[in-house]
Design brief:
Elements: H1 8-17, H2 28-37, H3 48-52, H4 84-95, H5 100-105, H6 114-134, H7 147-150
């Protein structure tokens, strides 16, 4: 944590004032990103787009946002083109014994319906699995120095700090 203080009150003041230190072994692109994120004035802080396109994160492949799903399973009973995950959900519902007729009879019921609840649970599981599969795998990490070398300037410094968690 870049903020250091002896008491919770002093730590809070450091956070609100934007008073922090970044160790010199942190590379310059990362330091710029940290400074941009920790700006005390919210209007001056980096936006998500700026953060994602920063020099420090230029090689990171971020996962695509998932499309919003329909909260009511009624569309599964209608003849239409379904996406891959929707077909998977429909098959899972049929395997549980929930047919198109059950879904049609569920029309007009709110989210407390057992069929709607099962539909949402299965859809969530399918989307969660697809999200895990779409996360890029990092195959090669660039290691510039060893951890021992990066911490060398700090070996002589002895200080105490309290780690506080503000809820």
């Amino acid at each position: 944590m870049p903020f250091r203080a002896d008491t919770v009150a002093k730590l809070k003041k450091c956070i609100l004032d934007g008073t922090y230190t970044i160790p010199p072994y942190i590379l310059e692109p990362c330091q710029r990103l940290i400074r941009g994120i920790l700006q005390p004035v919210p209007a001056n802080r980096y936006t998500i787009d700026h953060i994602m396109t920063s020099e420090w994160l230029h090689s990171v492949q971020f996962p695509k946002a998932m499309e919003p799903f329909k909260l009511d399973p009624m569309y599964l009973a209608e003849p239409c083109d379904l996406k891959e995950e929707e077909v998977e959900v429909k098959v899972a519902l049929e395997n549980l014994g929930i047919t198109e007729e059950h879904i049609r009879n569920n029309q007009g019921k709110d989210s407390r319906s057992s069929i709607t609840g099962v539909y949402r649970i299965i859809l969530h599981r399918v989307q969660k699995r697809l999200a895990r599969e779409s996360v890029p795998i990092i195959t090669q990490l660039e290691l510039k120095d060893s951890k021992k070398e990066r911490h060398k300037p700090y070996r002589e410094i002895r200080y105490t700090s309290k780690l506080c968690s503000i809820l």
